[in-house]
Amino acid sequence: MMKPAYISAAAALSPQNSFDADTLLTDVISSDNGKLFVKDTDYSKFINPVAIRRMSRMLKIGISTGMKAVQLSSVEKLNGIITGTGRGSMRDMELFLGDMIRLKEEALNPTYFIQSTYNSVNGWLAMQTKCTGYNQTYVHRGHSFEMSVLDAKMLLHDATEPQTYLVGCLDEMTDDYFIVKNKIGYWKKELPNSLQLLQHSNTQGSIGGEGAAFFTITNTSANSICSIEQLKMLHNATAASVQENIDSILSAHGMKLKDIDVVFCGMSGDARFQPLYTPILENTTAHTTVAAFKHLCGEYDTSTGFAMWLATKLFQEQSTPEVLIQKKGINPAINNILIVNHYTLNSASVVLMKKS
Amino acid sequence: MAEKIVVTSLGILSALGNGTDENLQSLLSLKSGVHTPTLLQSIHAHEFLMGEVAYSNDALSAMLGLPTGNNGYTRTSLLALVAMQEVMKGIDKDLLQSEGFAYINANTVGGMCAVEDLYPQFIGDEMEGDFLKYIDTLDCAESTQNVVDYFDIQPFTATISTACSSSANAIILGARMIKHGIVKRAICGGCDALSRFTLNGFHSLKNVDKHPCRPFDNTRFGLNLGEAAGYLLLETEKSAKERGAEILAILSGYGNTNDAYHPTAPSPNGDGAYNTMQLALTNAGLQPQDINYINAHGTATINNDAAEGKAIECLFENNIPLFSSTKPYTGHTLAAAGSIEAIFSIWALQQQKAWPNLNFTTPMEDVNVRPVTTLTDAAINHVISNSFGFGGNNVSLLFSKA
After folding, report:
1. Cβ(A297)–Cβ(A16) below 8 Å
2. Architecture of domain B5-242
């Protein structure tokens, strides 16, 4: 089994006050139109003022989140940068494609084209941090972020000296994206307020979301927040395979389900995928708190990143905000967190994290 | 010493043809596949030469036994599937499946080749129609998933997008996953289909040439775009021997670095390319003088070839190996370039020949290296294959003779 990797800093831009707020989820943001957009921050704090003028929203969000994680970690030298994104800069793609159709392939602005490439945030982060080391971008739908974490774990497992990688994810929602995916049933027909999403788990569809989360991940436990003990990726997940993977991770670490203090479930309100979480809801004992997060960030390819950021906050604060809780457990401390998440196109993952 | 990673099966579809025989014959006969495109629908199609694969979507579908017409498969997926047919001939599917394997794909714009035609319907008022089959094809993993479904296999899957180094990165990831014991084998590579989106993107950057591209030539102006799919089956030497598979080449090293210099341009003195090739050499435990041939990235853009040329000059000093860009044969096939050029590099080892750099007449003024311009017989034991992308994403692969 691969050695654990350690998170030394974490940052997230999300539809919630996750970036600048001093307290966790005390001022919760909701929406009624089926779309949750990232709450903007002052991006000029993180990006060169000349460069920022031409940058699209996704680039600003991704770069700022990555830079904030680096600042929080006070790491001097990154060994590499690894990101995952299902969609890249969706808006840049739409603008270049829209212009190309409208202007009949004449006089197009190359900026949109350049920024629409999936690795553009990675390139900018490398420039801003002067990191000439390993650089990688995964674009595998609901496993994009998970692949980034796995890659970092493989690199750190092999490292013979202390190393730190910046690992993150980014995905963007747009009005057009919402229209397009609505045609194949991604979203609920009757849109509830986002905070009520999970009370509508008897119908098909979810609500759209987006976000970015970045972590500095190292092979030294000193001064770290928590470890990523193990990560499993599941294809064509079923309730049984989710259960099997949870069981195998727990037994590999000599743990029982009751040792898990909080389990984050990626319930999206979509009736088709709700059964994947049934074993967790049924098998967890009074010890474990069951938490959800997609009513706060919406559904998107790399939402595991938001859950992982929440986990780091729970470890640090040792309490679980009410708005996350689906079923409250009695374990007094938060030392072990499990994330179980599924994304629309048949990918699921299970992650075990431990407080350092 | 870690277990050797070897290549045991290949699959390729490019403007040079379908499969190993057609592609290799074209290289041996110095025959370029770049021409005025006949399939790509673009107002600029007649202005540029491209490495367009000769088969229509219907013809590709027929080769795969799929229904023709709007079958829900994008050209990107069809290219990948045809190339994968050849790889799968090289191994027993049941063995592959039972012992555990990965399929690592790479791609730059997913099914954009189909989406760009349908986008007005995607965002319009229509709620029903054939276009619905293509709504989930925009992302880069669509071709990956189609390969998994078509061949009815259950690999560990991943998709990478680092612009023009994407499939070279897929090869590195596959090798690392085997070394980590996560899988026993990995099929790695990439695919990209020509699209108006990509053509107009590069055209708006003013780095597409209307004439045949001229890598490392002083008169170079830009690239010719191409489309292709290429995949390599990687496994350990031990596992290849166990099943009696022919070893085509050894993947003896690799390097991945970032320029950290500019979103689209390489560092002008070639630092990035230098570091990447150096890292691949270190990883393989080899010295610059051990390299006999470099399959250069050589896009024929002003910036790339100057930087890459300087890096080669700097790293190899008085022992400049034979080097060439094969982009004049295939066009720049973007996410597929790393894997099809890895295949060309393996053939260089097998054939003991360096592929000539077509269209070269005038040496660059500021760089003192010249590519090989004739089909050259040479003792070739170690080859570097370079792939450098937007975002500063650089990869060098180092293959050695089996």
Report:
1. yes
2. 3-Layer(aba) Sandwich (3.40)
**Per the CB < 8 Å rule, is A122 touching B258?**
yes
| Per-window interface: A 255-314 vs B, CB < 8 A | none
CA B168 – CA B77 distance, rounded (Å):
19
Look up the ipTM and state it: 0.98
Task: Report, as an integer, the average pLDDT of B47-70.
Answer: 97
Contact B260 A176 (CB under 8 A): no
| Candidates A109, A139, A141; nearest CB to B161 | A139
Provide the whole-model pTM.
Answer: 0.98
DSSP string over A110-161: HHHHHHHSTTHHHHHHHHHHT--SEEEEE--GGGHHHHHHHHHHHHHHH-SS
pLDDT at residue B2, as a whole number: 72
Interface of B with A in 29-68 (CB under 8 A): 42-44
Write the pLDDT tens digit of every residue in B187-230.
999 999 999 999 999 999 999 999 999 999 999 999 999 999 99
B1 interfaces chain A, CB cutoff of 8 Å:
no
Token pair 């987006």 is found at A210
Q: Which CATH fold topology does B255-401 show?
A: Peroxisomal Thiolase; Chain A, domain 1 (3.40.47)
Interface of B with A in 160-199 (CB under 8 A): 160-163, 169, 173, 176-177, 180, 196-197
- Write phi, then psi, for B347 (nearest 5 degrees): -65, -35
pLDDT tens digits, residue range A41-78? 999 999 989 999 999 999 999 999 999 999 999 899 99
Minimum-distance CB partner of B141 among A81, A140, A179: A140
A254 shares a domain with A196? no
Amino acid at site B343: I
- Average per-residue pLDDT for chain B: 97
Tell me which residues of chain A have a pLDDT lower than 70: none
CB half-sphere exposure, B350, CA atoms < 13 A: 16
Q: Is the pLDDT of residue B11 over 90?
A: yes
